[in-house]
């Protein structure tokens, strides 16, 4: 039995951040370590997983994936479409940016804004994932700080928050580009205009910092993760070791590969391109200019300084 599963506590390393912040890369890096089970964006299991049957990172459609089939069967038995649709609707509603402070109050008082059947469903879901992951630490790259607050409401779950920051100008530029979810489909990832994308980025980190007042965690920059993968993963693992109170085996960063099969759900199509070298995409520096780049710089000015993106 791994040391982190003592007392039947479910350990979740939560990757928080804005969209297009590199969370898929980080969760794939975790998947190379024997103590972690990379599950991707678990918050999207209701719609993109169960209802829409999109592809898992293992290559199978969700309903054919052995890992997720076992999870769904264990948590919910026979799938009732009406119930799953309700879970999807509730998940979307309670984690909306505009509802963050209602959710915050609910998570602190333990009742109210979040429907009881949804909390019970999440409780069953994470217990089933932990069983299928055989007690490994769950990597949940759902990103949303609001969703992290939902996990904080589950009685058997402990979370360690990895706040993954990426230069807002790179993120906003990325949000302008067309990107498909998975190979062989025309389904595109969300795209936003400059002002909306900048405000989403800003709010993502404001709420992440709010959550991190209440849970252990670490803030890292995506650029450091790419340029110094070994050092940055070492810092994260060191924080996790302190959280666990017992050291995990070292990670041999020099031999990183994408050889491990993961069951990463939803997220960037990078999860299908195993074997690809890790490199920093800096096209935004030459292609994101003019009024758009200026607007992002103004809207996110305080964070650009705080996270050393001014130069
Ligand atoms: Zn799978």
Q: Give the end-to-end Cα distance, rounded to a whole number of Å.
A: 48 Å
Small-molecule binders here are: zinc ion
Q: How does CATH name the architecture?
A: 3-Layer(aba) Sandwich
Q: Quote the average pLDDT.
A: 87
Features:
311 residues, alpha/beta, Rossmann fold, 46% helix, binds zinc ion
Task: Explain what you see.
By secondary structure, this protein is an alpha/beta fold. It is built from 14 helices and 5 strands. It has a single domain, classed as 3-Layer(aba) Sandwich (Rossmann fold). It is globular. Bound molecules: zinc ion. Zinc ion is lined by residues 56, 58, 60, 65, 67-68, 263.
List the helices and strands and how they pair.
Blueprint: E1 10-16, H1 23-30, E2 36-38, H2 45-51, H3 66-76, H4 81-94, H5 100-109, H6 116-132, E3 137-143, H7 145-152, E4 157-165, H8 168-176, H9 194-211, E5 217-221, H10 222-227, H11 229-244, H12 284-287, H13 290-299, H14 301-306
Parallel strand pairs: 1-3, 1-4, 2-3, 4-5
Helix pairs in contact: 2-4, 3-6, 5-7, 7-9, 8-9, 9-13
Zinc ion (ZN) is lined by residues 56, 58, 60, 65, 67-68, 263.
Concise account of the structure shown:
By secondary structure, this protein is α/β, with parallel strands linked by helices. The chain has helices spanning 23-30, 45-51, 66-76, 81-94, 100-109, 116-132, 145-152, 168-176, 194-211, 222-227, 229-244, 284-287, 290-299, 301-306; strands at 10-16, 36-38, 137-143, 157-165, 217-221. Zinc ion binds at residues 56, 58, 60, 65, 67-68, 263.
């Amino acid at each position: 039995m791994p040391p982190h599963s003592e007392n039947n506590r479910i350990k979740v390393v939560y990757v928080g951040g804005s969209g297009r912040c590199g969370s898929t890369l980080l969760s794939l890096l975790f998947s190379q370590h024997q103590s972690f089970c990379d599950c991707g964006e678990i918050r999207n299991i209701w719609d993109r997983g169960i209802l829409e049957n999109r592809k898992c990172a293992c290559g199978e459609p969700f309903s054919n994936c052995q890992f997720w089939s076992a999870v769904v069967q264990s948590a919910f038995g026979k799938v009732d479409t009406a119930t799953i649709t309700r879970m999807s609707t509730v998940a979307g509603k309670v984690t909306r940016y505009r509802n963050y402070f209602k959710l915050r109050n609910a998570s602190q008082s333990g009742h109210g804004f979040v429907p009881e059947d949804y909390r019970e469903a999440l409780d069953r879901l994470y217990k089933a994932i932990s069983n299928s992951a055989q007690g490994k630490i769950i990597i949940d790259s759902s990103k949303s700080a609001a969703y992290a607050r939902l996990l904080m409401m589950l009685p058997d779950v402990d979370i360690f928050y990895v706040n993954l920051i990426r230069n807002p100008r790179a993120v906003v530029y990325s949000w302008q580009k067309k990107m498909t979810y998975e190979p062989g489909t025309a389904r595109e990832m969300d795209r936003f205009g400059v002002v909306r994308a900048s405000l989403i980025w800003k709010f993502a980190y404001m709420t992440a910092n709010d959550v991190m007042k209440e849970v252990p965690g670490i803030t890292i920059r995506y650029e450091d993760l790419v340029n110094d993968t070994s050092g940055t993963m070492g810092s994260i693992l060191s924080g996790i070791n302190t959280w666990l109170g017992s050291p995990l085996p070292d990670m041999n960063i020099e031999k990183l590969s994408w050889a491990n099969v993961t069951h990463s759900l939803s997220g960037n199509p990078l999860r299908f391109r195993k074997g690809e070298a890790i490199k920093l995409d800096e096209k935004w520096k030459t292609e994101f200019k003019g009024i758009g780049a200026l607007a992002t710089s103004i809207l996110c000015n305080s964070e650009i300084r705080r996270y050393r993106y001014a130069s």
